[in-house]
Structures are given as structure tokens and as C-alpha cells.
Amino acid sequence: MHRYSHWPIHLALSIVCALMLVPFFWVLKTSLTGENIFVYPPSLLPENPHLFYYVEVWYSIPFFRYLVNSVFVSAIVVVANVFLNAMAGYALTRDFLGKRTIIMLFLSCMMIPFQVTIIPAYLITKELGLLNTHVGMALPLCSTIVCIFVFKASFDAVPKSLVDAARIDGVPDWKIIFRVMVPLSQSAIATNIILAFIWSWNNFLWPLIIVRDQAMQTLPLGLSRFLTVFEDTTGALYAFCVMVLVPGLVIFLLAQKQFIAGLTTGATKG
């Protein structure tokens, strides 16, 4: 009897999930049919679906070039986040003078929107000679405070005896991080990868500011260019959106369990 006692809750959650998936289904359906989205009554199922708009997007603009740029920038951001955030998270698990002040400073910086720091970020990137480069586009996202605290929470859950044993054996801190702590923090790694990838993949404002060469544009910038090329863009626009969304959705679905575990590590400690 207890097995079926929660069916009303499951039914309600299923209905809510179905409602939330309606916009995604509508985008996919329109990308396959190119139908007028203002037609009433709307058709629930796609009529005469085809892949014409996907082919049009691929060949009408240098989509593959934009895709390669986005993948390369996102790869830099993901690797940098895992490497730098792991070291920063480990540092925040140690006891040192001013630790509380640094944590409060990090938390305060999280309340500052990126738009406020665009000018100094641009000047720093210019002085480093990274304008119009993949590294320059990735630079502001190479380390994020949220992901640092994800690693810190995961490292705090690792038994201190492991770290003490490694120290007794003379293992340096950088080896403790990458040979002891990181292998035991798979959920934190997955969370860093997913968040860093999505933030970099969807980033529009920063690449728009520092990119001058059309060949260096990423997919979000390519979308804005695509809208200036075509007038009737309903089906092609939705096809473009689907092609941009798929990589992020795939990465999230592959690591969703680790992602949820990484976000709840601090809450389930002990």
C-alpha cells in the first residue's frame, strides 16, 4: 500500500514537468516545420517535418567556424575552472590568518554584476594582448566564485585523516590537491564542468566587446549575425537555437546526478 501512496505527488510533478517542456517542444517542432507560430489554433504535432532549416543554417553562415570557436573557448574555461577552483577551494579549507575576511570578500564580489567590471576587464585584457583571441574570450570565466565554494564544500567532506596521512608521508600540497582531494570530489568536478561550460557557451556580451575579427566569433555572436542576414527566420532561427542548445543539454544529462550531488555536498555533510 505504501508503494502507491505517493502517486498524487508524482502525478503533479509529471504535469509540471510536461508544462515546462512545452516551450522546448515548440521550438523543436517549429525548427522542423517552419510553420507560422501565430497560427490559431496551433498544431500540436509537426506536419511534414524536414531538416531543411538545419541545412540552411549550416551553409548560410560559417556555422562550423562559430562552433569550433565556441568549443575551444568553452574547453579553456572548463579546464581552467577545474584547475584553478580546485586550488582555491583547497586553500579555503586550510586555517590561515584572514581566512574569514577572504571568504566574506568572495561572497561580496558575488553580488557585483559583471557589467560593472567590464571596463577594467577590457583594459586588463588589452594590456595582456589578448583582444580578439580565444584566451581573451575565456579569461573572465576562467575562475568563478560559485565553483570555488563547490570545491570547498566537497573538500570539507573529505576526512582530515587522509590529508594528515599524506602530509606525514611528505606529500606537497599540490599533490594532495590533485592526487587525494580531486579524485574524491567527482561531483564537484562535474558541477564545475557543467556550470563553466554553460556560462561560457552562452556568453554573448564579453565576446561582443573584445572580438573584432568575424572568424573569431562564437555561436551567440553568430546568431546575431544570422538575424541580420535573413528576414524570414522563424524555422531557421529555431533550428539555430536547437543546434546551440543540444551540447549543453547533453553534457547536463550525462552528469546530472554528479551535478546535483556537487550542489548539495555541503548540506549533506556528516
Key phrases:
270 residues, mainly alpha, MetI-like fold, 2 domains, 0% strand
Written overview of the protein:
- The chain has 270 residues and is an all-alpha fold.
- The chain has helices at 7-33, 52-60, 63-93, 99-109, 118-127, 134-138, 145-156, 160-168, 173-181, 186-201, 205-210, 219-229, 234-254, 256-263, 265-268.
- Helix 2 (52-60) crosses helix 13 (234-254).
- The radius of gyration is 23 Å and the shape is globular.
Strand content: under 5%
The tally of helices reads 15
State the major sheet: none
CATH topology of the largest domain: MetI-like fold
The CATH superfamily of the largest domain is identified as MetI-like
Q: Count the strands?
A: 0
H and E string? HHHHHHHHHHHHHHH
What is the CA-based Rg, rounded?
23 Å
Distance between the termini: 33 Å
Question: What is the CATH domain class of the largest domain?
Answer: Mainly Alpha
Low-confidence stretches: none
In round numbers, the mean pLDDT is: 84
Globular, elongated, flat, extended or rod-shaped: what is the shape?
Answer: globular
Looking at the overall shape, the CATH architecture of the largest domain is Orthogonal Bundle
Domain tally: 2
Which range best describes the helical content: under 10%, 10-25%, 25-40%, 40-55%, 55-70% or over 70%?
A: over 70%
> Which structural class matches the secondary elements?
mainly alpha
